Amino acid sequence: MTLTDDEVDTQLPDEWDRQGDEIVRTYEFDDYLNGVSFASDLAEIADEEFHHPELIIGFRSVEVRLTSHEAGGITDDDIRLAELFDDEY
């Protein structure tokens, strides 16, 4: 079940933004390999949770986009995964 706009606003972790039906955060790094390593760590967490984000690896950044396609928007699963990712950072 998707969250209401108010629920997303109150539950969205710091540093995350809402863009339509997704929540988005860009993590910054000192160099490319640190970002790649972080993306790999996130991929393992996502696989364990069976909830897979879009990860965009840049030169010194990793952009993460979360949504629940099967539900048609943002769910508790997205918020939970965002929090797990922030714990990893």
TrEMBL record:
Checking CDD domains in the record gives: PCD_DCoH
Sorted alphabetically, which keywords does the UniProt record give?
Lyase
Q: EC number(s) in its UniProt entry?
A: 4.2.1.96
Reactions performed catalytically? (4aS,6R)-4a-hydroxy-L-erythro-5,6,7,8-tetrahydrobiopterin = (6R)-L-erythro-6,7-dihydrobiopterin + H2O
* One example GO MF annotation: 4-alpha-hydroxytetrahydrobiopterin dehydratase activity
Give the matching Pfam families: Pterin_4a (PF01329)
Instruction: Give the domain of life.
Output: Archaea
Q: Kindly list any coiled-coil regions of this protein.
A: none
Q: Which family does it belong to?
A: Belongs to the pterin-4-alpha-carbinolamine dehydratase family.
Task: Fetch the NCBIfam families from UniProt.
Answer: PRK00823.1-2
Task: State what protein this is by name.
Answer: 4a-hydroxytetrahydrobiopterin dehydratase
Native organism is: Halohasta litorea
Q: What is the lineage of its organism?
A: Archaea, Methanobacteriati, Methanobacteriota, Stenosarchaea group, Halobacteria
